[in-house]
Amino acid sequence: MKLHQVSQNCYAVENEKNRVCDANSGLINLGGGVVIDTQSDLAHARQMNTLFGTVRAGMPKRVIITHEDGDHVWGNQLFPGAEIISHRTIPDRMKEVADPAEMQHLIKIAEQIGAIHPGALAIARQLQQDYDFDGINLVMPTTLFDERYTLDLDGTEVHLIYVGACHQLGDTIVHVPKEGVVFAGDVIFSECTPNGWIGTYEKWFKCLDLIISLNPKVIVPGHGPMCGIEGAKEMKGYLEYVREESERCFKKGLTSLEASKQIDLGKYGTWHAPARLYLNVERAYREFRKEPADAPWDKAMCFDVIGEVAKARGLGLEF
Ligand SMILES: [Zn+2]
Hints:
Layout: E1 2-5, E2 10-14, E3 25-28, E4 34-36, H1 42-53, E5 62-64, H2 70-73, E6 83-87, H3 90-97, H4 100-113, H5 118-130, E7 143-145, E8 148-153, E9 156-162, E10 172-176, E11 181-189, H6 201-214, E12 218-223, H7 229-251, H8 256-262, H9 277-288, H10 299-312
Parallel strand pairs: 4-5, 5-6, 6-7, 11-12
Antiparallel strand pairs: 1-2, 2-3, 3-4, 8-9, 9-10, 10-11
Helix pairs in contact: 4-5, 5-10, 6-7, 7-8, 7-9, 8-9
Residues 23, 69, 71-72, 186, 222-223 line the site of zinc ion.
């Protein structure tokens, strides 16, 4: 993990491997300290705290959660007494998608179900190289907001803007206008293949346009290296490209799996985990089939299909 100072008072911890669960965290060193997203397990959360501890001492007064996924909330318990701020949908969604017991269970049974779910086995093995999900308790936000929430930190305004559902239902960006910084959460993946669970392409495009219009000097993405607005433009370019290619394949009668094996990855082939393309193709297909944006996913099946796509393309399997 690497500490970056991105402006006078804003910092980020980057998870440099940039694979699934390698989320970034932010720090605004004003108003008693604000940490943004708390990592995937306790060891990573402690390491993040150690790095931020070189900048400021003591427990931060606040934590902001950009969305409900486990890799952004599983260190919450290491901030006792902090005000935890999130969008109103987050607590219910955390119970649904970020139950640590489910992850612990997957790791435990992965070897047994490997014959039926080779993708689930592969992702469990990858995660075990870096993560330990034991001992995590789900700690819920204490302050909820709807569309916007503004903090005044020693005279510096911080805007929490609800932009969901793009990647997840609770997607929130954190804008510090005075310092030209946006903490984007998982509406921006940098140098790695994005994916979305709940949401629509339309909302995602709108959110990226908003970030571009804010014209930040630095964007701290949810995953991957720091970037500028070119990161938001690249993300939009990728999503537009995949949606268009998916539509072409859909009209030809191909399945989302067949499309995922065939779509030319072009310049995006160098991003981490290119086979995660399947999740974006399938999401486009759901829209073409007029299915609801919050239709549930069979995650074990998704990991299997990503494995199949990687194999068909001759790629190493990486999530
Ligand atoms: Zn994430």
